[in-house]
Amino acid sequence: MNLEAWNAGRFTMDQRLALSSKDPELVSPYRAFTRDEWAHLRADTPLTLSVDDLTKLQSINDPISLDEIVAIYLPLSRLLSLYVAATQGLFKATQRFLMAEAEVKVPYIIGVAGSVAVGKSTTARVLQALLSRWPNTPKVELVTTDGFLLPNAELERRGLMQRKGFPESYDGAALLRFVSDVKAGKRAVAAPVYSHLVYDVVPGEQVTVERPDILILEGLNVLQASRLPKDGSVIPFVSDFFDFSVYLDADENDLHRWYVNRFMTLRQTAFRDPRSFFRKYAEIGEEEALAIAENLWTGINLPNLRENILPTRQRASLILTKGASHRIQQVALRRL
After folding, report:
1. Residue 274: CB atoms within 10 Å
2. Strand, coil or helix: what is 285?
3. DSSP single-letter state for residue 312
4. pLDDT grade for 226, boundaries at 50, 70 and 90
C-alpha cells in the first residue's frame, strides 16, 4: 500500500474504506456496509410511510422510492432509536451522579450536511417523518441553516453575493446561539426563515422551536469547524451540540449533473413565479440558461464543495454515498 498516496488524500471514500478493511497499516474510523448489508439491519422496524407521503417529502430532481426507505432509512431509524434511548439513559445517569434535581428535557440533535443538489432536504424530511412516528419521540422539528444566511443587502454591502452559501455568508454567531439554546432546553427558541422563492431571508418572519424530542438541523456547512486557537481558548462549533450527524456524499460529476438538471427544471416551475428572484432565467433561451447554470456550478458551488463542504465529511457519524441515480450504494458508520 502506498501510504504517501493515502495520506495525501488521493483515494476516494469508497477506496479508503475498502482498503482500510484489508490493510493492517490503514485504520479507518468507519465501518462500511454495502446497500444489502445495511438493509438487513432493518430487522422488524415497521414501514410507516406511504407513496403519497414520499411524493410530499421529496425535492425537485431528487427521486426517492419506498425501496430506498426500506433499505436505507428504516435501518437508520432503528439505529437512531437505540442511540436516542442510550443518550437519554446517559443523561439520567449523569444527573444521578451529580445528585442534581431533574432538569428539563434535552433534545437529541441530528445534523444533515452535504453539497448543493445532493438531496439533503429530502433526507432531512424523510428522517423527520420516520422519527416523529416513534411513540417515545413524537415531536421532531426540522430547521435549515438557510435562515441564518446574511440578508442579501448585507451580503451586497460586504461583497459576498457571489459567495452565498460559503461559511462567511452566514450569521454564525446567531446559528450557534440557536443550537446552544435548543440544546439547553429553553422553552421557545426562534430561528429566522429563508425564502428560496425570493432568494433572501424574510424580514420579521421566524419559526419557533419548543423543546422538541429531536431537532434535525440541515445545511451545507453544519459540520464546519473553525481554526483552533493556539492558546486553547474555548471556541464552540455548531457540531459540538450534535448527538449524531449524516453526510450525504456523491461523485462531483453526478452533483454537477444534478445541479444543472435541477436549475433547468426550475425554469419551467418555480422560476416562472412573478415573485421569483430567478424570474429572468425563465425568460431566456435554453442555451443561455444552460451556460448560466454551468457558471453557477463552476464559479460558486464547486469551489464551496471542495473548500468547505467536502473537508467536513469525515466529521460525520454516518456517510451515505449515492450513485448516479440518487440511489444510496454504500453506508459508512463511525465506530464508537
Report:
1. 5
2. coil
3. G
4. confident
User: Concatenated DSSP letters for 57-101?
Assistant: HPPTT----HHHIIIIIHHHHHHHHHHHHHHHHHHHHHHHHTTPP
Whose grid coordinates read 421566524?
206
Which residue(s) pair with 34 in the sheet? 330
| Contact between 176 and 145 (Cβ < 8 Å) | no
Average pLDDT, the chain: 88
Around Cβ 134, how many Cβ atoms within 10 Å?
17
Tell me the mean pLDDT in the region 17-29: 59
- pLDDT of 254 over the 70 cut: yes
Domain 31-334, CATH class in plain words: alpha beta
- Neighbour count for residue 160 (Cβ, 10 Å): 17
Cβ 331 vs Cβ 242: under 8 Å: no
Domain spans of the chain, in order of start: 31-334
Per-residue confidence band for 12, with pLDDT thresholds at 50, 70 and 90 = low
How much of the chain is helix, strand and coil, in % rounded to 5? 45, 20, 35
Dump pLDDT digits (tens) for 120-170. Answer: 999 999 999 999 988 777 899 999 999 999 999 999 999 999 999 999 999
- Name the grid cell of 281: 432565467
Helices 120-131, 74-97: axis angle to 10 degrees equals 60
Query: How far, in Å, are 6, 50, 125, 243, 310 from residue 53 at the CA level?
Result: 43, 5, 10, 27, 31
Assign 103 a pLDDT band (cuts: 50, 70, 90). low
The CA-CA-CA angle for residues 251, 35, 326, to 5°, reads 40
C-alpha to C-alpha distance for 312 and 225, rounded to whole angstroms: 8
